[in-house]
TrEMBL record:
Highest taxon above the source species: Eukaryota
Molecular function, one GO term: metal ion binding
Catalytic activity: L-cysteine + O2 = 3-sulfino-L-alanine + H(+)
Pfam families: PCO_ADO
Gene3D superfamilies: Jelly Rolls (2.60.120.10)
EC number of this enzyme: 1.13.11.20
Native organism: Miscanthus lutarioriparius
Name the UniProt record assigns to this protein: cysteine dioxygenase
Taxonomy of the source species: Eukaryota, Viridiplantae, Streptophyta, Embryophyta, Tracheophyta
Length: 260
């Protein structure tokens, strides 16, 4: 059944609606989000476009939005998609409970295979096409400071190409493709919500992996922890979308970027 939002909620920008929903759903870290809450967030993400987070994808004028009140004002300054000549992260918000940001890719750029330890990640492809490779651990390797992670993983997506517009996706700690890599087929951007965010202090570092196929086990691979590829960097860009009103009890963390 469709939800009828009151007028004061409908007057909010789309990114503000997303933030408010995340604040409600993720404000109790001890309680895992329900299926209904995840679907609610996916529905909000499904209604978002690049202009809603301050990016001009070049597809159409920002004033053509069907909901002028909720999109950046006509004539406002947006980040042009052709300006992203390397992978760039647009930081929107981060607190202890969740983060919101956008990864922008030039064609051909790759975000290497990485994990999301004990995290839920919702992703919305805002424009363009991206090739996805993802895995889930058969049995997650036990953390050890003296040795690198290594284990058998099940292939979830084998070079699957996603094209915008498409529905928002979600991955969980042990399902949905918790370890993934992206390669931009065309210039593209991915809006991410992570809960909780990466945190070295809380045992949630971002770890990179190489994959070794197992010929005798089709659909599986051995994943081995590796160093960040030499020369790989992610640039930062300012958020130019609608102003966000955040909970004053939160400490907004302005880290330059987070791997998705």
């Amino acid at each position: 059944m469709a939800v009828a939002f009151p007028p004061h909620i409908m007057a909010l920008s789309k990114v503000q609606r997303l933030y408010d929903a995340c604040d409600v759903v993720f404000s109790s870290p001890a309680a895992a989000p329900t299926v209904g809450e995840i679907r609610w967030l996916q529905n909000i993400l499904d209604g978002m476009e690049a202009a809603d987070v301050g990016i001009d994808d070049g597809e159409k004028p920002t004033s053509s939005s069907s909901d002028d009140e909720l999109s950046p004002k006509s004539g406002s300054r947006l980040l042009p998609a052709p300006a992203f000549t390397q992978i760039t992260y647009v930081h929107i918000h981060q607190c202890d409970d969740f983060s919101i940001g956008v990864f922008c890719f030039p064609a051909g750029a790759t975000l290497p295979l990485h994990d999301h330890p004990e995290m839920v990640v919702l992703s919305k492809l805002l424009y363009g096409s991206v090739r996805v490779r993802s895995y889930d651990w058969v049995a997650a390797p036990s953390p050890s400071p003296s040795r690198r992670k290594c284990g058998l993983a099940r292939v979830v997506a084998a070079d699957v190409v996603r094209r915008a517009p498409c529905q928002a996706s979600v991955l969980f700690p042990r399902s949905g493709g918790n370890l993934h890599a992206f390669t931009a087929v065309t210039p593209c951007a991915i809006l991410d919500v992570l809960t909780p965010p990466y945190s070295e202090d809380h045992g949630r570092p971002s770890t990179y992996f190489t994959n070794v196929p197992v010929p005798s086990l089709p659909g599986f691979a051995v994943l081995e922890e590796t160093d960040l590829p030499e020369g790989f960097t992610v640039a930062g860009a300012p958020y130019l979308g609608p102003e966000l009103t955040v909970d004053m009890d939160e400490d907004d963390d302005d880290d330059s970027y987070d791997d998705e």
